[in-house]
Amino acid sequence: MFRIPFSFVLPSLLCLLLFCSCQEDDPLDMTDLNPVTGEEGVETIFDGTLDLSDPFNYGSQSIPGYINRDNTDGNEITDEGATLGRVLFYDQALSANNTISCASCHVQELAFGDDAVVSVGVSGTTARHSMRLINARFGNEERFFWDERANSLETQATMPIRDHVEMGFSGEDGDPTFGELIERMSGLEYYNELFANAFGSSEITEDRMQDALAQFIRSIQSFDSKFDAGRAAVGNNGANFPNFTEEENRGKQLFLADAQLDRTGTRVGGGLGCGDCHQAPEFSILPGSGNNGVITSILAEGPELDITRSPTLRDLYRPDGAENGPFMHDGSLATINDVIDHYNSIPAVNRGLDRRLSSGGNPQRLNITADERAALVAFLKTLGGTAVYTDERWSDPFESRE
């Protein structure tokens, strides 16, 4: 149910989950705006922010024993690789005009998402809302972007860099090529040091960039929520959590229990069915899910029936209670209550609609009561963590240059 399209993708996902087509603006100004000279190494550029001899712990972070879904598939996180990935993620030199980084659209303080409906790239605005990147690792779905067009996080990682609108190294329409980006990076001493530290030689390749970016993104994890404290105290997702209020426990049950729909699509019993698609305890999207009925195209190019990816439902709320919206691939639902309204009454059946959101050819009508809505919201708030919003290991290493 709760497909709050999880906003991997960058620019996104890295520059990820930005996952967008493009919208062309004025020709790119290729003036060399590079803020550093090629001779400046790690020590000079980062002024103590990075210590290659004593990196942050990325590769052996504590993960709860009940978290079992993982899409890593061979590219294991190393401290050295994720350190390089962190620099790549925040470096504006990876955009054609030195103004945009992956972090421009995936902001740590916003759960590595964007509070704008669309993000600004080097040549206009993105065609989809930037997906939140928290816990991108912890799910069985291996494909990324809202439409799942990237077969892995590694593949996805450099697609925003290659996009004309997002970061501008498309090699088309007057844009520089990806090879020119590698040439630029090879002239920056800090990358020679970082690639040698991560891979044993200073050679810069797209494959190495993809691996490092994916390692950094997969390292961004959030497991210090009220939900995690409760889950650790019991043996399963369904039991009442001792640290939850009665309302929060009721909201959890509503989330996890299937909705019983009659042939008209009307709920006649059961819960709300959110957990059918958003699997606890990771709250990641179930592979093979259909679209959720939000099929509007920001570019007005017709319905987007292939929007089937979602970020985790963890960290929908920040520690101060603010929401990490807007939600969905088109940013059309500004608040969690808007999202609940959508699932309460799916607008219409379409040929790609997930089968769980209709019955008898009719879209679901959950008829959620005010008490149920309040309980569901109370539960969703328990999925928000704290440390991920401020942890230095995921912060901007270039801040010392500001």
SSE arrangement:
Blueprint (H helix, E strand, L loop, with lengths): L41 H5 L32 H12 L29 E2 L2 E2 L27 H5 L20 H9 L2 H11 L6 H14 L6 H8 L12 H11 L2 E3 L5 E4 L7 E2 L4 E2 L50 H9 L13 E2 L2 E2 L6 H12 L21
Antiparallel strand pairs: 1-2, 3-4, 5-6, 7-8
Strand line-up of the largest beta sheet:
1-2
Structural class: mainly alpha
Radius of gyration: 21 Å
Largest sheet: 2 strands, antiparallel
How many β strands by DSSP? 8
Structure, briefly:
With 402 residues, the protein is mainly alpha-helical.
Keywords for this entry:
402 residues, mainly alpha, two-stranded antiparallel sheet, two-stranded antiparallel ribbon, 24% helix, globular, disordered N terminus
Give structural notes.
The protein is mostly helical. It has helices at 42-46, 79-90, 153-157, 178-186, 189-199, 206-219, 226-233, 246-256, 336-344, 370-381; strands spanning 120-121, 124-125, 259-261, 267-270, 278-279, 284-285, 358-359, 362-363. The protein is built from ten helices and eight strands. The strands form four sheets. Strands 1-2 form a two-stranded antiparallel sheet. It has a two-stranded antiparallel sheet with strand order 3-4. A two-stranded antiparallel ribbon has the order 5-6. Helix 2 packs across helix 6. The radius of gyration is 21 Å and the shape is globular. The relative contact order is 0.19.
